[in-house]
Amino acid sequence: MIGLLGRIAMPFLHAIDAEDAHGLAIKMLKFAPLPPAPRDDKRLALRVFGLNFPNPVGIAAGFDKNAEVPDALLRLGFGFVEVGTITPLSQPGNPRPRLFRLNADHGVINRLGFNSQGADPALKRLVGRADAGGIVGINVGANKDSPDRVADYVQLIERFAAVASYVTVNISSPNTPGLRNLQQASVLDDLLARVVDARERVAPNAGPTPVLLKIAPDLSLGDLDDVVGIARSRRVDGMIVGNTTVARPPSLLETEIAKEAGGLSGRPLFPLANRMLAETYVRVEDVFPLIGAGGIDSGATALAKIRAGASLVQVYSGLVFSGLGLIAAIKNALLEALGDDGQDSLKEFIGADAAAVTAEPWPK
Questions:
Q1: What H or E segment, with its residue span, contains residue 165?
Q2: SS3 per-residue string spanning 175-230
Q3: How confident is the model at residue 73 (pLDDT cuts 50, 70, 90)?
């Protein structure tokens, strides 16, 4: 039924401006009389970051920016939802138009720039659904004009730890000037030290809150060495690989739209994102788990992410072109793979192809 509703809505949503379509989708989810999600096959369950996920398919940050519809998304069948990016103060983001579909490529370019209602409205909504259950992570970012961006992250950890299943420190958006500079070794070490300290400081009241780091797929391998080393030394609980890319693969068909500034996501991102996931996995050495994001639009690509090193996966742009049926398609494909391989758990697949992926030619 959910897949059918998605197929009915998609032609209309694609006929209007991309950002307007996104806003309409949020409104539809607010009022849609969705039934509870059906119980997942127990073979899809995983314990990651100390949390029990009913299935490994999540929706990435960027869809529900202001924590308006996390429970509706869980009812669609997602194993977890990541809301945000939430900034301390409200900000409008970049001027419109700032969201573009590359229909022929099944890709999206965005330069939204952390448009956010700010922390207060999101916190109020999350406090209101605190007893609803389900895994809801919170993606946090700094305000564009903040005089101290590290302090922004610290403040958000302190405020949201009690209502977050986990918190993601997003330093990888290409659309806030200078934000990716926080991935530089000396700055990142200070950031993570202060963030983890804030988490520990509020833990007696908030409880244990996993802290994840979300990185860009555009890092050099030398920079990735530094980032993973710092993440390990500062004892973060996991990483998300990765955000959108500023690169434009030569294979893109929508050449005029591809000239738009911003981060590219969707199918064209998959080769680079998957390679960076595998590179991260071999460097992490099982110290903490990874979430794979970028280019997942089928069961096959979700399984490839897991085999490249992801314990969990996140989708977003794939929904634009494949619809809500993508959620069930991924879960069915994972169950089929388990059956074909005679496995009772996805754990055996995690990282199985990572070494092979890192040995391939670099994706163009």
A1: none
A2: CCCCHHHHHCHHHHHHHHHHHHHHHHHHHHHHCCCCEEEEECCCCCHHHHHHHHHH
A3: very high
- Is 210 a residue whose pLDDT tops 80? yes
Q: Tokens 């209502």 map to which residue?
A: 163
In this prediction the pTM is 0.94
Catalytically active residues, by annotation: 173
Given the DSSP bridges, would you call strands 263-266 and 51-53 parallel, antiparallel or unpaired? unpaired
10 Å CB burial of residue 69 (0-12, 13-18, 19+) is buried
Structure tokens at 257: 């739209």
DSSP letter for each residue of 74-87: HHTT-SEEEEEEE-
The model's pLDDT over 86-125, given as tens digits with 9 standing for 90+, comes to 999 999 999 999 999 999 999 999 999 899 999 999 999 9
For residue 225, what are the contacts with CB-CB under 8 A and spacing of at least 6? 283
Q: What is the largest CA-CA distance in the chain?
A: 55
